[in-house]
Every structure is written in structure tokens, then in C-alpha cells.
Amino acid sequence: MDAKIAHLELIQAVVTRMASNSFLLKGWSVTLVAALFALAADKSEVLFVYLAYFPAISFWILDGYFLHQERLFRKLYDHVRALDLSAIDFSMDTSPLTSKVDPWSAVCFSKTLRVFHGTIIGSIIVVMLVAILGR
After folding, report:
1. Phi and psi (nearest 5°) for 3?
2. How many CB atoms lie within 10 A of CB 66?
3. Which of 4, 93, 107, 131 is 20–30 Å from 37 (CA)?
């Protein structure tokens, strides 16, 4: 039983790390977009608003990747939880479970990521329109 618990703890540590990475990406996304908005306002240069799309979209894709990985490791956790004690091999391979999780592209457009990152993209569009119409 100790081996099973140790294996589950290893998997849980990976899930926690993926969730932490996702949280950090969200913070960096907001910070970089806000910094580019500040540069655009300070220098009266619309180009900085356009540049805000790059970190916003990049962090959206990365966040989707980490959420996909987190879901795979949650499936692995459920798989290991149901295994017989003699079958515990400390494998962290999630490839056999990929068919049981939505593909990465679908995870990128999950409800939570659409709301968070869509709001950032929406704010970039609004600031861009205000900057263009304000000229």
C-alpha cells in the first residue's frame, strides 16, 4: 500500500505544479498586457497595443497546454488509484490516457480559459479601437 500512496503523491505533485504554472501564466499575461498598454499611453504609440496580442495569445496557448497536461495526470491518478498493488510500477506515462481527455486544442477553448483569456483579448480590442478612433 505504501508504494501506491507514494505513486499517487508523485502524480499529485505534478498536478499541483501544472496548476501553479497555469496560475503564474495568467498573472504574467495580465502584467505584460497592462505594461504594453501603459507604454502605448505614455508614448502615444498604438504599436504597443498591437504588440499586446503576442503575449495574450501565447499565454492562452501555454495555459491550454498546462490544463491539458493537468487533465492527463488527473486521469493517470484515477487509473493508478484503481490499480492492484502488484501492478504499481511508478510509471508517469500519460500517453495511454490521451483518448480519455479532450485534445489540447479543445482544452484551449474550455469555458474557463475562454472567459479569462477572451477578456484579455477583448480588452486589447477595446483599447486598440479607442486608440485608433482617438487619433
Report:
1. -65, -40
2. 19
3. 107
CA atoms within 13 A on the CB side of 106: 7
Contact 33, 124 (CB under 8 A): yes
Contact 101, 72 (CB under 8 A): yes
Per-residue pLDDT tens digits for 41-80: 887 788 889 999 999 999 999 999 999 999 999 999 999 9
Q: How far is CA 24 from CA 20, 39, 96, 109, 132, in A?
A: 6, 22, 29, 19, 31
Q: Quick: pLDDT tens for 73-120.
A: 999 999 999 988 888 899 999 999 999 999 999 999 999 999 999 999
